[in-house]
Hints:
Layout lengths: L1 E6 L5 H11 L6 E8 L5 H8 L3 E4 L8 H13 L5 E4 L8 H6 L4 E5 L14 H10 L3 E8 L9 E8 L6 H25 L3 E4 L2 E4 L3
Parallel strand pairs: 1-2, 1-4, 2-3, 4-5
Antiparallel strand pairs: 5-6, 6-7, 8-9
Amino acid sequence: MLKIAVLASGGGTNLQAIIDAVAAKTLADVEISVVISNNQNAFALERAAKAKIAAVCISPKEFESREAFNRAFLDKLNGYRVDLVVLAGFLVVISPEMIAEYRNRIINIHPSLIPSFCGKGFYGLNVHKEALKRGVKVTGATVHFVDEGTDTGPIILQRAVEVKEGDTPKTLQRRVMEEAEWKILPEAIDLIARGYVCVKDGRVVREGE
Ligand code: GAR
């Protein structure tokens, strides 16, 4: 049984995709031990509560320094003894201490085909705005391990999505979620749960399938 924590700051549709996959047993041998948000009003927390999953809010605003927040966050997370941390629209920078402690055990979903439209400042709707501005015809989503950089860790899965004439950032975001994010995030967790994902020389290799 792979125990996971899901970290989310907003609506939590990616969290919902994981909850649904666990319920449908397409994600077998996975337990969501806790959902943690930095945002008390995140709908993700309601989704967790509805699914009877522990829902925790820990906000930087409650702490006098970023260091104090980072320490408290890591302590809280460690209390759940999870095998994998899943960032599903989590907009807080992960501390170097947490990355070191959970090396190759934190994954993130990003709404573009990395290395396009990623890095500092590229999150949420902004990613799709920039993709439309550049006029790309294909975009997509990426699941990757989290390292010290922004969106620089080893890539686990990617899926391409067509950009259509007349797309707005919102319509493109929705298509990327439906056709890519909500599929590859549970798929990546499943591959990890089955022990098929290894990191070698900074890249993901799949073994034992
Ligand atoms: C998702 O599109 C996710 O890929 C993106 O935030 C959205 C969260 O939606 N994450 C990033 O941009 C990270 N750089 P959700 O709360 O409905 O899952």
